[in-house]
Amino acid sequence: MNRREHPRPQLMRSNWQILDGKWDFAFDDENQGLLNHWYQNLPATHQINVPFTYETQLSGINDPSHHKIVWYQRSFEASAENHVLYFEGVDFETQVWLNGHLLGTHKGGYERFSFDLESYLTDGTNTIILRVEDSLSCEQPRGKQRWLKDNFGCWYVQTTGIWKSVWLERAPLQRLKDLKLTPDLDQDLLKVEVNLQDATVMPDTPNYFVEAEAHFDGQLISYHKGLLVHNFSSFTMDTRAKGNADSGTHRWTPHTPNLYDLTVRLYDTEGTLLDEVFSYFGMRKISIENGMVLLNDRQLYQRLILDQGYWPESGITPPSVDALAEDIAHIKEMGYNGLRKHQKIEDERFLYLCDEAGMLVWSEMPSTYVFNDNAIGQFTDEWLQIVKQQYNHPSIITWVPFNESWGIKGINHYQRPQAFTEGIYHLTKAIDPNRPVITNDGWVHTISDILTLHDYEEAGAAFAKRYSDHQDFAVEGHSNKEYIVDNKIQFNDGWFAFAKGYEYQGQPIIISEFGGIAFTLEGEGQWGYGNQVKNEAEFMARFEKIHAAIQDIPYITGYCYTQLTDVEQEVNGLLTPDRKAKVNLDDVRRINERRV
């Protein structure tokens, strides 16, 4: 099966069909659809090209104004056997009907959700209808979606409705709901946790058997078959190649992104095959020791680029899988070994391509912009689902639930937002104790596994002076590092590293946003950091100096440059919105690879 094309490459079945393409569509600005029973037959006024939202060119509608309620309708052919309908992402509140019957509802814009269709599915033609309600509320996770009528700063056109793929697969009612795959590189083992769709597997219900095969490059590496007595039962699989007990595990690294194939089957007690899924995994280890991030027990210097995943013709929806692959190829070409996917939960096929390419990924939650009980609840529900859904990807090495105090206003002084970040940190660690978690990327950290600093200082000399170990404060027996982490001095126009009541605990230090040099090939741009440069020579001179300032500071263990592409009014990318190079990419690579 082609993982590159499947919307969920980490858990595939053989019988599936994509439902992207032409759907009937209607705006419901007067909120009349429910009263007039549009869920039985939609009086469509448009056709829309799913998964592109009506705001985009590729949708076929291209209306950037905000419409609160939209409806969709699509027919498909299927047998009456049970099928599952999947939505990879619909923003924001969704109701789904099949053949006039309500399947259910979902609230949240970024995670996958699904419905079993058995009860209402018929042989032949079936019809799906959706009602989606979105708002400009800052209580819901918005990321870079504007909440005002027009774009401003670095916030862009909103996203409404279906923005990721819709697909259908044939699957039994009792099936393998998901797999949790945890590599234990030190022991050459993969831990497999099996979660069933019907979670009521108790001693008085039928037992099931699970079978698993792990292959590498076509060779059978490990096999397991055992009784599944409890839901979420686990077992381990040896990952060493035959004949090489010492170093036989094929490690995943940026230079050797080795992936194992995994097939898992579910049987009943009679030996009847109930379900079969196809997955994959990478064997790698992320750890922190002595102020360093380690990959497979070796120091990792992270050369990341900020990637917002926007396209001029399609907004936050990638125009194709090839477009995702092209972005990764550009990032590698420029000498970066990873990316920070900023304020967006990207198409899972992108994560597969990163797994395959050895591209390191920081996964970041789109922010809310107010702090209240509603925002806390919605944020928490979505974030935990996202961590679970992305858990198996070896490319993801860091979780970033919060950015620059967005949605946690007052965190520097007040206990409630501080407690919220601590809670999210510990909930994330409860699901995934193996990856670092950054609680407030940029500044004013509470508890965090990495101290990340955002600093858009445009002068390389000033940058070096601020962070150097041997400038200004050395005569007092202190380095600038100590003054920064102890909140004695500020950075980036007036921010401290830690919130009040929190202290530096020896974490690795990464400059996780910097640069953002405003430069456009079209003349004067609209928005960027610092003074806009006039030509490529000015750009590269500034680019090289600020990189050298960071690379020459020994205690800084990596950086993330802002950013990959221009986005709408923001002109601080290395590439134009249509992915044309604004500067010589070989020069970018040379500068990045000064420190590896």
Characterize the structure shown.
The chain is an alpha+beta fold and 596 residues long. Helix content is 16%, strand content 29%. The strands form 7 sheets. It has a 7-stranded parallel β-sheet with strand order 26-25-24-23-29-28-27, covered by helices on one side. The chain has a 6-stranded antiparallel β-sheet with strand order 3-2-4-10-7-8, with no helix packed on it. A 4-stranded antiparallel β-sheet has the order 1-12-5-9, with no helix packed on it. Helix 3 links the parallel strand 25 (360-364) and strand 26 (396-400).
Main sheet makeup: 7 strands, parallel
Adjacency order of strands in the biggest sheet = 26-25-24-23-29-28-27
Secondary structural class? alpha+beta
Would you tell me the overall average pLDDT? Answer: 94
What is the assembly state of the chains in this entry? single chain
Radius of gyration: 25 Å
Give the CA-CA distance, first to last residue. 36 Å
User: Share of helix among residues?
Assistant: 10-25%
Strand content: 25-35%
- The count of DSSP E runs of length 2 or more, i.e. the number of strands, is 29
Overall geometry comes to globular
Low-pLDDT runs of 5+ residues are 471-475
- Number of continuous helical runs: 8
Question: What tags apply to this protein structure?
Answer:
alpha+beta, 16% helix
List the helices and strands and how they pair.
Layout: E1 16-18, E2 21-27, E3 46-50, E4 69-78, E5 83-87, E6 90-91, E7 93-98, E8 101-107, E9 113-116, E10 124-133, E11 161-162, E12 166-170, E13 176-184, E14 189-196, E15 208-216, E16 219-228, E17 233-238, E18 260-268, E19 273-281, E20 286-289, E21 292-295, E22 298-299, E23 302-307, H1 321-333, E24 338-341, H2 348-357, E25 360-364, H3 373-390, E26 396-400, H4 415-431, E27 451-454, H5 460-467, H6 480-485, E28 509-515, H7 536-551, E29 556-562, H8 585-592
Parallel strand pairs: 23-24, 23-29, 24-25, 25-26, 27-28, 28-29
Antiparallel strand pairs: 1-12, 2-3, 2-4, 4-10, 5-9, 5-12, 6-11, 7-8, 7-10, 13-14, 14-17, 15-16, 15-18, 18-19, 20-21, 21-22
